[in-house]
Amino acid sequence: MASFKSDMTICPFCKEEIAVGAIKCKHCQSNLAPMPGENTVSGPSPATAGNHVISQRSTYVGHGWGTIVISIVFILLAALYGEPESEFYDLEASIGAAILGVIVVVPYGIWIMTREGSNKALPAIAMILSVLSFFGSFMV
Q1: Buried-most residue among 40, 43, 84, 120 (CB within 10 A)?
Q2: 140 close to 78: Cβ distance less than 8 angstroms
Q3: Cα radius of gyration (the chain)
Q4: 118 touches 61 (CB < 8 A)
Q5: How many domains does the chain have?
Q6: pLDDT tens for residues 3-16?
Q7: Whose CA is closest to 98, among 76, 121, 123?
């Protein structure tokens, strides 16, 4: 443990005193050193520490994939109920699944796309697929 004040610095996240070469804050458990291959550090809030800019990793990255999965589920439901040769054929259920897909995916996709650091392409693809599924359900 460092005994001299010159060997100590302030954590950019919790503002507690820590050792100069610390990798992780002993008070707030924030990572102070970047992971291999990246220049970001995780913690409760973005901050600037000395000459290094520390930014928070995006928590919205996985949501883009979520919109794709939700969109595909509703497309499969619409296709299952919309296929005339299927034993589950029900045109109203097919249209309902397509409408519900648009109602769920479009606002969710817009919400994700407005978040800084989120993946913009996946929600856009999911919204396009949902809208195409909606219009496709009327063409049976």
Answers
A1: 43
A2: no
A3: 24
A4: yes
A5: 2
A6: 555 788 888 888 88
A7: 76
Residue-number span of the structural domain to which 4 is assigned: 1-57
- Give the 3-state secondary structure of 68-131: HHHHHHHHHHHHHHHCCCCCCCCHHHHHHHHHHHHHHHHHHHHHHHCCCCCCCHHHHHHHHHHH
Last residue of a domain, one of 57, 85, 100: 57
CA pair distance 120, 127, nearest whole angstrom = 11
Largest CA distance in the chain: 80
6, two tokens: 């010159």
**Contact call for residues 70 and 64 (beta carbons, < 8 A):** no
* Residue found by looking up tokens 């901050």 in the block: 47
Of 98, 100, 107, which Cα lies nearest the Cα of 133? Answer: 98
- The tens digit of pLDDT for each residue in 15-58 reads 889 988 888 888 888 888 765 555 554 444 444 444 444 445 55
